[in-house]
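Researcher: Next entry in the queue.
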Amino acid sequence: MSKPRILTPAGASFTTHGGGYALEMEALERLGAEIVECPATEEGFIAAAPEADAVYAKGMRFSAPMIQALTKAKVITCATVGVDYVDVVAATAQGIAVTNCPDTFIEEVADHAMMLLLATHRRCIEQDRMVREGRWTEGRPQLSTVPRLMGQTLGFVAFGRVARLVALRAKAFGLRMMAYDPFVDELTMSALGVVPASLDEVLAQSDFLSMHAPATPETGHMLTTRHFAKMKPNAIFINTGRGPTVDEAALIEALQSKRIAGAGLDVFEIEPVKPDNPLLKMPHVILSPHNASASARFDEARKRRAGQELALVLSGRWPMSCVNPTVLPGSGLRRWQPYAMERGPNS
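Model: Structure for this entry, 347 residues:
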């Protein structure tokens, strides 16, 4: 019997510890599986695709022609939360499961979102510059115009895993919370002290608006000019989700016209940010380079999880976290988990 063959583009992605697949192989070694690199080009991948039993997606976009070239692969595994670099529609049409890591480093992202909220609210960067530039006496007058955090309203657009962890953190600061997410039941929100609401209600009432929607064809430019126009002039916009879910030009205009007061952004419509992006020169905007998930455990945790998902599928079982679960009943894989796990297709 031939070894299961996992195809991956050459080179690591997002890693800070170099290449190699030792962590992924912890779960795969017992299956005799091998990870085989191909050139990180569409042509190179397509040439190698027919021999692949699985794909470890990293380092590039996976287009429909690349996925259609996979004649026997059962799974495309992503070691990330987002899967927007994989054509999931094409994978679904091909009957291939696409997996992600939806809960591996969500604590870090929630910490980062809360950091951006607190830092923008208390004008952290501006206050730091005042001290460094000898403008000591300007600090207190600026904060004298800032309301107390306790009692203000934090609104969530999408209420998935990260947003729920942000809610746990925000509760300790005395924030009133509300959320819009038509795919999450009200009891999940109310159990965390979050009021279910419409999008218009969240926009109109929030002093802080935290965006958590994933990047999908349906969520592109989910927030536009008309949405920012409904927000309070003192509102601060936080985004640790995905940049393309927001019309960035509309956000910039809302900030420039003082339609909203500020922003804390970890993600952008175009990454890396171009040097002429107006956001770079705005005083009441705090930016980070799409690194909210980063911590000392980031690489190890996501690589091990990718290996576990690949091992599950290659041993004939459903994966833990499948973003297109409709393919699973006809996949020939077996549902192996008899009780709810509160996530993924096995729940």
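Model: The chain has a mean pLDDT of 93.
Researcher: Noted, moving on.
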